[in-house]
Amino acid sequence: MRIIFAGTPEPAVVALEKLLASSHEVVAVITRPDAKKGRGRTLHPSPVKALAQEHGIEVLTPTTLRPDSEDGQALRSRLKELQPEAIPVVAYGNLVTKDLLELPQHGWINLHFSLLPAWRGAAPVQAAIAAGDDVTGASTFRIEEGLDTGPVLGTVTEEIKGTDTADDLLTRLAYSGGDLLVATMDGLAAGQLEAQPQQGEATYAPKISTAQARVEWSQPAFAIDRHIRAHTPGPGAWTMWGEARVKIGPVSLIEEVAVPQELEPGQLHIAKNAVFVGTGTQPVQLGKIQAPGKKMMNAADWARGLGKDAEVKFQ
């Protein structure tokens, strides 16, 4: 099948690699424009663009898909020339208008990292971990004008492990989801797939702000554990230590902790080789911490460098 791939970040690269290795013909890629990164704020291509260029594939980088914009008009003209039969999408990051959705024969087919209608929106992996779900997965569906509301073409399930960060889970889903996307393209090409309406109550996973990633130490230990893992690595769980904002890596839940006194939420207890923090229930053991201007480091090593008058409570 003749396809154009739309995607931007690293997780989308896996799906594009699998499509390139399949029997389908990837004639072009649509991705976000180059973005400024690093201290020098130099322009860098998206991971999807970089891979497409390695394979000599045409890259389209409109800033907007609106039909009244110059970029939008140019994209429409080029898509009509290329005549894709389907446009598979993985985390592209731009709103697709109705006239574009109707352009390919099989539509725009999105790979979404949840079992729809669960966790519609921008952060399904983070939401599943934070909610304590045992199982999640990936879905392919035909994009409609609504937010992740389109009929489903295929699904794959994935167990959520008790130590999974968002990065761990998303990495596994990128691979299983990439296989699902290829299988979906195969089924559409063979005329063997029929999209099915989503069944069940929808839940939503909007984009996460940095402010929302703050750790609330008054929460139960299990909720803090999920919250930190859900926000690792991005945007990064954090807390205040005096006047400084510090990032917190995943913590360990320990049923019996040798702490000589009860700890208030956020209160630190520094042992010889461990750092514990009070929560709304039992204390948790810190794994890693990143102070301003520093690299992420083991919490015990960080604590050994503190002066005797250092702050002993997170806020």
Automatic annotation (TrEMBL):
It is an enzyme of class 2 (transferase). It catalyses: L-methionyl-tRNA(fMet) + (6R)-10-formyltetrahydrofolate = N-formyl-L-methionyl-tRNA(fMet) + (6S)-5,6,7,8-tetrahydrofolate + H(+). The keyword Transferase applies. One of its GO terms (cellular component) is cytosol. The keyword RNA-binding does not apply. One of its GO terms (molecular function) is methionyl-tRNA formyltransferase activity. Residues 1-183 form the Formyl transferase N-terminal domain. Its EC number is 2.1.2.9. Keywords: Protein biosynthesis, Transferase. SUPFAM superfamilies: FMT C-terminal domain-like, Formyltransferase. It comes from the Bacteria. InterPro entries: Fmt, Formyl_trans_C, Formyl_transf_N, Formyl_transf_N_sf, Formyl_transferase-like_C_sf, Met-tRNA-FMT_C, Met-tRNA-FMT_N. Residues 207-306 form the Formyl transferase C-terminal domain. (6S)-5,6,7,8-tetrahydrofolate binds at S114, L115, L116, P117. Attaches a formyl group to the free amino group of methionyl-tRNA(fMet). The formyl group appears to play a dual role in the initiator identity of N-formylmethionyl-tRNA by promoting its recognition by IF2 and preventing the misappropriation of this tRNA by the elongation apparatus. Belongs to the Fmt family. This is Methionyl-tRNA formyltransferase.
